[in-house]
């Protein structure tokens, strides 16, 4: 009996060791790769020999439209392109166009629009705020210019939701004229850069500055020696809003949760074995 119990305990120890190393190993791996869309099981049997060969030598599969390429071709969007790439929103759009049927709408401020910003406006932003700024220019649905006549304001942008403080914007339209209001900036659509049935890109004459960045945190603390009281009040009033860091990317949260759940299962298995081992003693 003793021997038996000893065996069970050493088994248990080995098992727990295994658990702790395997769960320790996981967090290192999880954040590295964002969850890849599961391969469609229906598609693969249809053309098994075909697709790998085609992917290998032909670099022109009819994938989603490439936003940065379209803008490059159109010309006059160098600053926007740089921001789209740096914030990885370009990839985000590509991924979403591939996955969803809803499509996408991008308001593309021209280089002239960016240069008319107060100098230092972009530099004053954190990386997180730059991402929000670019996401604020994208709607997670496809809109034709005519569609804007029937939208209900405020519209949800990719940066958040329709609630105040969640980066909404308003679009008003009459005929083919479309205006966008952020509460801080009134911009006008001055042309269509691209439109198919899932992606539209509209040229806008101003950078859409979201209230949620630029009122909560005024751009460039100018070396003004006079400390104005009203500005300070705004600062403190707006600061809770500006703490958007709580929203982490869903993939990371998901994998953490998954490994936590797994850990929980492992622990309960371990406990059951422990109980079994003791009942043998
Ligand atoms: C689009 O999705 C398919 C399958 O879902 C995938 O094989 C392909 O790599 C994706 N393309 C891009 C550009 O994300
Ligand atoms: C759009 O804004 C311009 C001024 O910038 C204004 O003249 C026009 O009436 C507005 N149109 C709509 C549909 O709001
Ligand atoms: C946007 O539209 C909503 C609903 O019409 C309105 O309550 C809100 O004040 C508008 N916001 C801006 C910034 O124009
Ligand atoms: C934007 O337009 C609205 C009226 O459509 C006006 O009340 C507001 O002052 C304008 N805002 C700016 C920043 O020009």
From TrEMBL:
<feature type="signal peptide">
    <location>
        <begin position="1"/>
        <end position="25"/>
    </location>
</feature>
<dbReference type="GO" id="GO:0098552">
    <property type="term" value="C:side of membrane"/>
</dbReference>
<keyword id="KW-0654">Proteoglycan</keyword>
<comment type="function">
    <text>May be a cell surface adhesion protein.</text>
</comment>
<dbReference type="Pfam" id="PF02469">
    <property type="entry name" value="Fasciclin"/>
</dbReference>
<feature type="compositionally biased region" description="Pro residues">
    <location>
        <begin position="219"/>
        <end position="228"/>
    </location>
</feature>
<feature type="compositionally biased region" description="Low complexity">
    <location>
        <begin position="35"/>
        <end position="58"/>
    </location>
</feature>
<feature type="region of interest" description="Disordered">
    <location>
        <begin position="35"/>
        <end position="65"/>
    </location>
</feature>
<keyword id="KW-1003">Cell membrane</keyword>
<keyword id="KW-0449">Lipoprotein</keyword>
<dbReference type="InterPro" id="IPR000782">
    <property type="entry name" value="FAS1_domain"/>
</dbReference>
<feature type="region of interest" description="Disordered">
    <location>
        <begin position="219"/>
        <end position="251"/>
    </location>
</feature>
<comment type="similarity">
    <text>Belongs to the fasciclin-like AGP family.</text>
</comment>
<dbReference type="GO" id="GO:0009834">
    <property type="term" value="P:plant-type secondary cell wall biogenesis"/>
</dbReference>
<protein>
    <recommendedName>
        <fullName>FAS1 domain-containing protein</fullName>
    </recommendedName>
</protein>
<keyword id="KW-0336">GPI-anchor</keyword>
<dbReference type="InterPro" id="IPR036378">
    <property type="entry name" value="FAS1_dom_sf"/>
</dbReference>
<dbReference type="GO" id="GO:0005886">
    <property type="term" value="C:plasma membrane"/>
</dbReference>
<keyword id="KW-0325">Glycoprotein</keyword>
<dbReference type="InterPro" id="IPR045003">
    <property type="entry name" value="FLA_A"/>
</dbReference>
<feature type="domain" description="FAS1">
    <location>
        <begin position="64"/>
        <end position="208"/>
    </location>
</feature>
<keyword id="KW-0732">Signal</keyword>
<feature type="compositionally biased region" description="Low complexity">
    <location>
        <begin position="236"/>
        <end position="251"/>
    </location>
</feature>
<keyword id="KW-0472">Membrane</keyword>
């Amino acid at each position: 009996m003793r021997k038996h119990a000893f065996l069970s305990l050493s088994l248990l120890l080995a098992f727990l060791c295994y658990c702790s190393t395997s769960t320790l190993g996981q967090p290192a791996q999880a954040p590295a790769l964002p969850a890849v869309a599961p391969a469609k099981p229906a598609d693969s049997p249809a053309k098994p020999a075909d697709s790998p060969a085609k992917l290998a030598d032909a670099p022109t599969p009819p994938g989603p439209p490439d936003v940065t390429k379209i803008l490059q071709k159109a010309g006059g969007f160098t600053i926007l392109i740089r921001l789209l790439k740096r914030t990885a929103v370009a990839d985000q759009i590509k991924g979403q166009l591939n996955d969803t049927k809803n499509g996408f709408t991008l308001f593309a401020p021209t280089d002239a629009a960016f240069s008319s910003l107060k100098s230092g406006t972009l530099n004053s932003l954190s990386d997180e705020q730059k991402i929000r700024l670019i996401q604020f220019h994208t709607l997670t649905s496809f809109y034709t210019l005519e569609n804007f006549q029937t939208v209900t304001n405020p519209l949800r942008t990719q940066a958040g939701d329709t609630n105040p403080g969640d980066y909404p914007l308003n679009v008003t339209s009459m005929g083919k004229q479309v205006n966008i209001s952020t509460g801080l900036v009134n911009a006008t659509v001055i042309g269509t850069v691209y439109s198919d049935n899932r992606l539209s890109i509209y040229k806008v004459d101003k950078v859409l500055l979201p209230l949620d960045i630029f009122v909560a945190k005024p751009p460039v603390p100018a070396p003004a020696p006079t400390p104005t009281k009203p500005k300070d009040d705004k600062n403190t009033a707006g600061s809770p809003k500006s703490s958007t860091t709580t929203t982490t990317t869903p993939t990371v949260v998901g994998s953490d949760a998954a490994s936590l759940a797994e850990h929980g299962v492992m622990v309960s298995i371990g406990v059951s074995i422990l109980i079994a081992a003791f009942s043998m003693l």
